Amino acid sequence: MSSETQKILTTDGIPLEESLKKAEKKNKIKAFLLVAPLLLYLLITYIFPIGDMFLRSIDDKMVTKMLPKTFKAMEQWDGKDLPSEEVFEAFYLDYRILVKEKTFGKLATQLNYEKNGFKSILKKLARKQKKFEEGNYKEQIMKVHKRWANVEYWRAIKRRAPNYTYAKYLKGVDMYEDENGKIVQVEESRRVHKKLWFRTLEIAFFVTVFCFLMAYPIAHLLATLPMKYSNLLMICVLLPFWTSLLVRTASWMILLQQQGIVNDFFVWIGLVADESRPEMMYNKTGTYVAMTQILLPFMVLPLYSVMKTISPSLMRAGKSLGGTPFVAFWKVYFPLTIPGIGAGCLLVFILAIGYYITPALVGGASGTLISNQIAYHMKSTLDWSFASAMGLMLLLGVLAIYWVYNKLVGIDNIKLG
Amino acid sequence: MSKNNAFVKFEKVDKSYDGKLLVVKDLNLDIAEGEFITMLGPSGSGKTTCLMMLAGFETPTNGEIFLDSNPISNIPPHKRGIGMVFQNYALFPHMTVYENLAFPLKVRKISKDDIDKKVDKALSMVSLSGFENRMPGQLSGGQQQRVAVARALVFDPAVVLMDEPLGALDKNLRESMQYEIKHIHESIGVTVVYVTHDQGEALTMSNRIAVFNDGKVQQLSSPDKLYEEPQNSFVAEFIGENNRFDGEVLDVSNGVCKVKIGQGEILANPISVKSKGEKTTVSIRPERALINPKDKMDNNQKGKIEEVIYHGDHTRVRINLLGNSDFILKVPNSSQNLDIKLGNEISIGWNSQDARALDPK
Ligand SMILES: Nc1ncnc2c1ncn2[C@@H]1O[C@H](COP(=O)(O)OP(=O)(O)OP(=O)(O)O)[C@@H](O)[C@H]1O
Ligand SMILES: [Mg+2]
Predict the structure, then answer these.
(1) Which of A310, B252, B274, B330 has its CA 20 to 30 A from that of B18?
(2) Assigned CATH class of A193-413
């Protein structure tokens, strides 16, 4: 054997490695061109909106842009005592422009988020500033309202100086940064979001559990029944897919409301008295029932596709080796369905955690989820940055669940069919 | 301990899946303790059904099955203590080889030490020691097969059922596995009920063979008897190669019958014919007919060679004889070169004892 490694050449005399690279480059470019439309599509419809959402959620330029001179002047201010005359003057000049452009209302809203009581004193200032004389603005402004002499309000303005903020994220978990820069919880009565997050997790979890408990026997039947019955059953499982979501939810409303069919039936058979009909709609129960039914196919299908591949002779082998039917099921059949269980649970849980229409319609006050809150901020308060922040938090939550699942079960163990 | 000659007993067992068709008809079968019995038959003849009834996965429509003289119809499969090797191995894919073998022992609550010992022993029996931690998916087909055999035997069942266990293996592996299974059977003396539709496999492995057709046992006897002395024309046709003539009995006397075949007449051994005028199928094994026989034989016919096929150790000669153009002869290649040429007219002889007059086909 020679120790010298000779470079292998192609018949044209080019080193083999080089010509291989060249040949592969062409293929790589071709492959890239083939997937380029998809990449572009993903970029436009997925990555770009999420990026935009993120920027929106941390964006705080509005106030920064409205009060450029003020923030410039405030750079010198240590925030302990009332700011100096320069700050007051800069603020007056900024605010005069806003009043002229009639956009000071926006500033009032924004600053009011930061500290209650800004709205009225800004309005008053807008009226009074017309008669301001030149010079000594500090005095004149403080005269408009005594709150202007309160350093807290000036600190609140300064807090809005940065271009970016994570305040929306804090707000999403009922926290805020107080005057001293400490992160604290909002007062007890105003903690709505945390409760919603937990309720969302709770409902998603139980919906997943209910779906699993119902889907497992159905999927098993589907996989083992003879063709002619299993086809019929399959149609029954898929029927919900072919019916409009709204129609399905509405029919649950008809069935479950207090004067609905189910309650009528209960009264008729004497299970409950007419006066004490249970509320099964417009609360958590309604959300549970409707969501479980709607998400059931997403559990049945992955389970079915996995069970279909399990040979019936495995159960028989288990029994012939001495396992009782239960042991054979638990030790042989069940472990083999875990990939399907994983896929189904992950799918249902992730769908449930972001579910919107059904809880909005049947959830009432106690059955709505975080996505309903997001929608509320998108449509009613128009606080899009807060909606974006919560949307991203939801996305992060889903990714976290996915990560945990991957650690526990392994994502390649998932089988969707 | 005296050997039980009817350790497993099928008594008048009928089975129908759909209430219209009997797939097993009036099955009566006694299997002795320690016996290796094979069910052989064409596809759909009811072999698997019989095994499933014995294992407890199907119930007989009628009749009863006894295990060691106890009726077992009401015993669920997991209490029958019958080992089973499935056609597709049915190893548990999520368990290692060790766990697969330990499964039947664990459900019997055997101590960990004993489990280890038994698993070790079973694995070395199929020469797979050292494979304990492999998953079934990491084994070759033959190795999986051996694990399946070891698993069916590891809990010392009284009876082991094997349903075409070698069906998926190639020819070489098949032959070595046949040898291995046979060897294991001899060394531990377990009763084996084996299903196959490969007659070579059945002939080499079994103590007795039950030939199935159409839900019925056509013949139950030892391999040599089955080949040499088929009791009916289905068995004669199904087992080994067979030359047959359809004809009519002219006369039965002194254990020999005269059968009219087309224009000619031959002498035959009357197995299932009794009297003149009956229709019959006469069966002769190819190696029983000789070309230009030296010894005196009581059947002598002339035939024309239609085809000569070289087979290495022997040559097959197809002859048109008495209107049957599919008459096959096997000529060993060591014998002196007879005048075997296409189109030649040769003389062929056989003993009437070897020409069995069976039921008409
Ligand atoms: N579960 C079933 N339902 C209805 N008919 C069945 C069922 N299983 C088997 N059969 C029918 O019973 C007959 C006997 O089947 P069986 O499986 O016993 O045949 P086999 O001898 O094992 O054939 P093979 O050699 O092909 O395995 C066949 O006609 C088959 O169609
Ligand atoms: Mg079969």
Answers:
(1) A310
(2) mainly alpha
